# Entry
Amino acid sequence: SSRHWGPIYVKLKDNKYLQLFYEKGLEKPFKEFNLEINHEISEPKLQNYDENGRIHSVRIDRVTYKEKKKYQPKPAVSHIAEKEQVIKLGTTNYDDFLSFIRAVQYSLMDLPASSTDLSTVGLNYQEEEITVDVKDEFYGILAKGDNRIVQHNVLTR
# Structure
């Protein structure tokens, strides 16, 4: 696989999978993959692109949790996230970048939990653990004059 940035066109189809095209307007993608409930979108980054500037990049990772035992100072068990990069995408257009991140986040939130075989989840865990990190984001449009909320969207991750 190559490790350089190249131009592609990305399409989110049916809020379930990404299609990658070599250029806009083609009918057949060169690659596509389903979004899964164990996928996570990384924090946005700004990277060197070429001699002319920088590029906004984001990864979609497959996240699994592995149980690790610790013995000092007393025996304990923790569940560590292991991330495998599925794809990394970038653009110099910041508005497109934000739009893509929001679209993928909403799609991941709308995936049914039953799409994973729950009988295989946690089979090798000796101790159960739940960790919750919550981040709320609010997007709203206010009416001029009386400041009523005309349209809103709330994202909790």
Q: What stands out?
A: The mean pLDDT is 84.
